[in-house]
Structure formats: structure tokens, C-alpha cells
């Protein structure tokens, strides 16, 4: 889900070609230390604009639209291997020998896998409200998006079809080159991806030796207090903070997220 930026920040949009498939990303630029920011389902790289502004010139935030989201092309593959292959290609393309990786929800799982695969390159890991164990076999929490049309003739028509979700998604709708408008994600792809992200991710959460921040919402639908405590206790060099929010921390308490991330990064 896309948070509204708190302040205007310039970001250059670029595209990486991956064997004919486009991976779009925002680079907020500067000479600061690189931070790779990974969004969750129903969201996109632009959701980190306010964070980039809050971190200032000390950090260079790079926020991809992960496969099938935003301006990045769709793909039949929404497995961890597929997502992480894209991210490895991106950091190699940008020449990031060392970087911090932050993720929310889908992005937090992908961040753990990336850190596990590149422990010598990831300086720190930031997990925004996502469990190391996401039970498999349950009905998709995002199944409601299957009622959304992917495209419509006009923006107003598409907004009307989104119903209560229109305020949340309206700013992210995309015009089509041939006319009409589309969602920033395909409904069926989203359910496929959300189903695939469920499973046991303990091995990857524990794999990287870098310091980590686990930030949890007190009313989270995804990460319970006991599980967060276990994630913190089992992983050395892990800091645990809570915010008075649900799973969508950046929407509910963006200033709290920014402050917690800044505090953590000051000691990395």
C-alpha cells in the first residue's frame, strides 16, 4: 500500500532490462550510503519517498518496483528465487558493494533472503512488521483484489470499481499507452505472490550476521508480540521497537517509522 510522501523529494526513475523484462526503480540519488528499500504487496517504490526525505543526504535510497508492481513488468514467477534474482541484478547493476536493505511485508521477506545470500555485502537489515514464519495453506488475505478490474477505459471508471480501496490506490493508477488506465498490480498476480510468500523463513532471518531492526505495530495483523520477541532473542545484534499502529506502519505512523529507522541507522 502506498504512503503519501511527507515532503517533496526528487527521485530519478530508471529501468533495468532483465532479458527483455523491465525492472523499474527510483534512485533518490546523492553520495550517501546506499539503502535498498523494498515495498510490500499493493505498493511500489514510491512509497518510500517520505523515508528518503527523512533520512536526508546521509543516505541514498534506492526503491525498486518489485516484479509485477508499479512500472515493472509482470512475470509468471513470484517465488523468492525470482524476486531475489531481480534484486541481486539491481545491486550489481548499480555497483553497490555494501548496502543496507529495508523491507515491509513481502519486501521484508525478500530483504531477509537477499541478506542471507549476500552476507558480505549487506551492512544492516530492517524488517518492518513481518514474521519469520507465515503459515502456509491459509486463504489469501488479499483475495479481495480479485474483484478489481485490472484495466478500465477511464481513471474515474477504475476508481469507481475499487470502491473503498480507491483512496488508497488512486494515486498509483497508471495510464496505458494505448489509452485507458490500469492498476499498479495485476489482481491475480498479487494473490499468487501473496500465497507464495507464506512459509517458514526462519533460516533466512537468522542467516546474516549484520545488525537488524525489527519494527512491529502493536496492532499488527501479521506479527504478534511473542513471535517478535522470539525473532529478536534468536537473532544476535537485533533491536526490537514497537509503534502504536497496525501492519501498515508507514501509513499509520510514518514519523514513528522514520524516527526508529534513523535511530537504528545512526549506530550501524
Would you mind describing this structure in some detail?
The structure is a single chain. With 268 residues, this protein is α/β, with parallel strands linked by helices. The chain has a single domain (12-135, 189-265), classed as Alpha/Beta hydrolase fold, catalytic domain (Rossmann fold). It is built from ten helices and 13 strands. The protein has helices spanning 49-55, 80-93, 106-117, 155-162, 166-169, 187-196, 202-207, 225-234, 249-252, 254-265; strands at residues 12-18, 21-27, 33-38, 59-64, 99-104, 122-128, 133-134, 151-152, 174-175, 181-182, 199-200, 212-217, 238-243. It has an eight-stranded mixed β-sheet with strand order 1-2-4-3-5-6-12-13, sandwiched between helices. Strands 8-10-9 form a three-stranded antiparallel β-sheet. Strand 3 (33-38), helix 1 and strand 4 form a beta-alpha-beta unit. Helix 2 (80-93) crosses helix 3 (106-117). The radius of gyration is 17 Å and the shape is globular. The protein starts with 11 loop residues before the first strand and ends with a helix. The model is unreliable at 2-7 (pLDDT under 50).
